[in-house]
Prior knowledge:
Layout: H1 7-16, E1 24-27, H2 33-53, E2 59-62, E3 65-68, H3 79-83, E4 87-90, H4 94-102, E5 108-111, E6 115-116, E7 122-123, E8 126-128, E9 134-137, H5 144-150, E10 153-157, E11 178-179, E12 182-183, E13 196-198, E14 202-205, E15 214-218, H6 224-229, E16 236-243, H7 249-259
Parallel strand pairs: 1-2, 1-5, 5-10, 10-13, 15-16
Antiparallel strand pairs: 2-3, 3-4, 6-7, 8-9, 11-12, 13-14, 14-15
Amino acid sequence: MSTDYTVNELMAAVIAREIADDDLVFTGVGTAGRPFTLAVGLPVVATRLAQAAHAPGASLYWGNLLSPDLDRMPDSWLQDSFTRWPCASQLTETSQKIDMLARCRFDVSFESAAQVDRYGNLNITRINHPDGSLKIRLIGCLAQPEHLAFVRKPIIVVDLSHRVFVEEVDFVTSFGHRRRGVTRERYLLPGPGPQLCVTDKAVFDFQGEGGSMRVRSLHHGVSLDEVFGLMGFRPEVADDLAETPPPTAAQVDLIRTRIDPGRSLLRA
Length: 268
């Protein structure tokens, strides 16, 4: 088996397989560094891989831009360059995007978070001291509550670490499958909740008991013990646990020569 690919390229290939033809895919604008790669870069590259292979009709909604020209990436991610980027349509009000979310118009969304728990609850709002008092104020909810409430296939994209994967999030920014015995059905949430969690070590789904996290596949060279050692809880393990399928040589070439030759999306 060839291992001539990066972890980022592997993660992008995993995500690409989850995008179907004619899906409307949403990702946010992101910030910088590794958070940008997780929340924006990987989803954008994955969407382009899907469009090039099995989902030519898939459309990307990036920030407030519908179907930006991904063959002509901006020179920078400053607001001015982003605003002048050619696209099919540009919404001027965030309320329009929220309305689309509430009407279940998006098929796939991508989420990253400071904390994720075993039931897929996400926290991007605050980190607490052990006594429950505020330790760190984070970016806040943005539209993430609506993503997990209304989108057909929310996909969580994070790196595996004790800091992120916790038994119970300090604050529920987005409701997953259950919280302290209360399920999403109690809140009449129409979407199915998070469907997949793609990390740098393994891929998880939420097919465990009561919608709990389950290890679906391990990346090449990664053991279950390594995965467990990077988590604050013990997830379930799929009976058919397998190695994560690697990207093809054609996918790697496409990423490096056409989609992201300058590594502006898939940074280290």
